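The step that takes the researchers longest sounds almost clerical: writing a folded protein down as plain text. Below is the pair of lines this work produces for a single protein:

——
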Amino acid sequence: KDQQSTSCRHCGADNETCAHIIGYCPAVQDARIKRHNYLGEMLIGEAKKKEWVVFQEPLLRDNNNELYKPDLVFVKGDQALVVDITVRYESKPTSLADAAAEKVKKYQHLLNQVQELTNATRIKFMGFPLGARGKWHQGNYELLADLGLSSSRREKVARRLSNRALFTSVDIIHIFASKSR
């Protein structure tokens, strides 16, 4: 309306929005990867305290020989939890629930491959979405409970993960802006 370009100053995408910067712009991809890995390390730390064995980004091929790499596979006894973390911009009330369902759908066809990797007989596939603006997905409590965290510990971990997702999203915006100077 005011004759200013709305396209991304770094990658040329149609719209330079917070959602684009935080979730998609290649100019800050390294920062997004660092955020993702940090969040994964936080979950791994909690799981290891409860004596879970952790596979990080195992390479699994489906029946069509396509390669998949879920973020984390937690194994304890006959149970395996296949978890894929994502940070999403909360653009609508169902953004995080939609992301969780998307992650389950992406990996659930790998049941046999996960059984082969882990020797587990009880396997659960879970998306673990965090809001880029700090929103917590209620379904994430299920993973923390499955890992064996007490209710008070689940609350502390939820707060830490949400804060980290928010603060690193702000950092990503700052990195993006500083590249423009």
